[in-house]
Write a structure and sequence with these properties.
Blueprint: H1 90-101, H2 104-126, E1 148-155, E2 163-169, E3 177-183, E4 198-202, E5 211-213, E6 219-224, E7 231-236, E8 241-245, E9 254-255, E10 266-271, E11 279-284, E12 288-293, E13 302-305, E14 317-321, E15 330-335, E16 339-344, E17 354-359, E18 365-370, E19 377-382, E20 385-390, E21 398-399, E22 407-412, E23 419-424, E24 428-433, E25 443-446, E26 452-457, E27 463-468, E28 472-478, H3 480-483, H4 489-551
Antiparallel strand pairs: 1-28, 2-3, 3-4, 4-5, 6-7, 7-8, 8-9, 10-11, 11-12, 12-13, 14-15, 15-16, 16-17, 18-19, 19-20, 20-21, 22-23, 23-24, 24-25, 26-27, 27-28
């Protein structure tokens, strides 16, 4: 049976639209008193009663049993075939299908199903179930109060609690998992029997870790491979670099030899853009940047010592920023000394690999990240403030106010160009929204009483994970207003950044002009003083000459050694 239908209307004309008309009020029910029923009741006085349209219900509470979910999988192959039919062989499949199509029961079943499908198709032609009634409408969240709610808390399962030092979200937004590195970074504060494992947590099952990563030392940083989410790289407290494949077990697939690794803890690392997807870079406070290939971790592919131009001081690296949009060979380093270094791996000259240095922070730069919408602008977090910079200017274009406690991390929002987050040592999370307000944070959340040590946000912009020094990692969900881009927000933020950049350039030009003017004024005053001294010396010489003439003495009577010399004359 062949089902054929020709569409003769345009797509937007499908479906019946609702029509609403005004009608006058009408009496639904009229209940009158019945005198004959009065004898069956007695009067109650006084009486207090309430009348509600909804039925009255009693309130009760019940403790439900907590259920732990476990994710399991199995290999599924095409089913429905008899045992003697190999579905991978095309000839067997064709022969079996022809046999089934000749069966009378098969033909009857198809006729019955065909009628049912035809009814469904006619219904779909009458009503457009995919019509969007509010297509193109943008929700306005400017009037709502921003908020963030706590979904769950991931706690370090080990007996000796360690701080959550680094958080990395799975690049696949549908696979809501995050890897957390646990470590005690205090010098000589690692107790005996301390666990060296870090964990991957599943948002849908927060009661126990989804995967355990075991290593030779504490894990200070961890990152998912953007090309293969089954692979993670990590930097150790002893300076080694390892990588795991969750399909191959809990121990590292390979690790760098300790004599070829960093001499200090590896505080940050990042995967690089490459054809193979196996290249990464790491930084440490020993003052070196190493490039690695996970296919051969015997020694680093390349290294770089962190020194400013015209300086012999080696700087220790604390944070690393790498974004392929800004350039596949460009990266930035945040140092212990509060300086941000702009670097280029493939510079024309070896001495140009470390370029511009941005000074401004009074302590280590704990976090460094480019704006995902405007890569030439980046944010640095250190000491008591967060600063927004532009690549071409050595001074920050925007700075937050100084807080009463240290800032320990933060990042930009991946979905809104004007929103960024900062975490503090007093346990507070601040959300800044430059689209609405620049002087104060839009939202401040007291996450815990302990110091916050790490932070990361999922690519959807809704889920954030905040790590603390007691090993807890709080998963929070932001409101839609903080994660959904507002109308004209991108252009407004771009104009604001350009305005502040232009203002900073004007101030820099004015400062240079004032320095040049002061230098010229100093040189002029020096020349004036020199000419004044010369005139005074000549006047004293002339006075001595005329005194000799008035006394009637001859020059032959006076020895040149006995002639009085005016003050300052010996200088000329």
């Amino acid at each position: 049976m062949e089902i054929y239908y020709m569409y003769t209307k345009r797509r937007k004309e499908f479906g019946r639209h609702a029509r609403f008309d005004d009608e006058p009020a009408e009496v639904v029910s009229d209940i009158r008193p019945e005198p004959e029923l009065k004898a069956d009741y007695i009067e109650r006085n006084p009486v207090t009663t309430t009348v509600q349209v909804a039925p009255e219900l009693s309130e009760h509470e019940a403790n439900t049993q907590q259920i732990s979910y476990a994710a399991t999988g199995f290999a599924h192959t095409e089913g429905g075939w008899p045992k003697d039919i190999d579905c991978t062989e095309a000839e067997h499949v064709i022969r079996y299908r022809k046999k089934v199509e000749k069966d009378e029961d098969y033909i009857k079943t198809i006729n019955i199903l065909g009628g049912q499908v035809e009814d469904l198709i006619k219904q779909n032609n009458a009503i457009d179930i995919y019509e969007e009634y509010f297509a193109g409408a943008v929700a306005d969240h400017s009037s709502e109060q921003p908020f963030a709610k706590t979904l769950t808390v991931f706690r370090d399962p080990s007996a000796i609690k360690r701080s959550a030092s680094y958080i990395s979200w799975n690049p696949d937004v549908n696979n809501r998992k995050c890897a957390i590195a646990y470590s005690i970074l205090g010098f000589q504060q690692q107790p005996e029997g301390m666990s060296k494992s870090s964990y991957i947590w599943d948002v849908n099952n927060p009661n126990k870790p989804d995967f355990e990563m075991k290593g030779p030392s504490q894990l200070c940083c961890v990152n998912y491979n953007p090309k293969d989410t089954n692979i993670l790289s990590g930097g150790m407290y002893n300076g080694q670099i390892c990588y795991w494949d969750i399909r191959k077990g809990h121990t590292p697939v390979d690790s760098s030899p300790i004599e070829k690794s960093h001499r200090d803890p590896c505080y940050d690392m990042a995967w690089l853009q490459s054809k193979t997807g196996t290249e990464c870079t790491s930084v440490s406070t020993d003052g070196y940047v190493y490039w690695w290939d996970t296919r051969r971790l015997g020694e680093p592919v390349e290294d770089l010592m962190l020194k400013e131009k015209n300086s012999d001081t080696v700087m220790g690296a604390v944070s690393l920023e790498y974004e392929s949009i800004a350039g596949p060979t460009k990266f930035m380093i945040g140092t212990e000394q509060g300086t941000v270094l702009m670097c280029n791996r493939k510079a024309k000259n070896p001495q140009d690999r470390i370029g511009t240095a941005y000074h401004g922070h009074h302590g280590p730069v704990y976090s460094l990240e480019r704006n995902p919408f405007f890569p030439k602008y980046f944010m640095s977090i250190g000491d008591w403030s967060a600063r927004v910079w532009m690549e071409d200017i050595r001074t920050p274009i925007m700075t937050t106010r100084y807080h009463g406690t240290y800032l320990t991390g933060g990042t930009w929002s991946p979905t809104r160009p004007g929103v960024f987050f900062t975490i503090k040592a007093d346990g507070e999370l601040d959300v800044w929204d430059y689209y609405y307000k620049q002087n104060d944070p839009t939202l401040s959340v007291k996450v815990t009483d302990r110091a916050l040590t790490s932070f990361n946000i999922q690519d959807t912009g809704r889920l954030v994970t905040v790590g603390a020094s007691d090993g807890s990692a709080t998963l929070m969900e932001l409101c839609e207003g903080l994660s959904t881009m507002q109308p004209n927000e991108k252009s407004s933020i771009n104009q604001m950044f350009e305005r502040e950049t232009k203002r900073e350039k004007n101030l820099e030009t004015r400062q240079k002009e004032m320095k040049n003017a002061a230098k010229k004024a100093a040189m002029t005053s020096r020349d004036d003083n020199a000419s004044g001294d010369s005139e005074e010396a000549m006047a004293e010489v002339e006075k001595g000459f005329f005194d000799i003439i008035k006394t009637g003495m001859k020059f032959d009577d006076i020895s040149p050694l006995d002639m009085p010399s005016p003050e300052g004359a010996e200088d000329y």
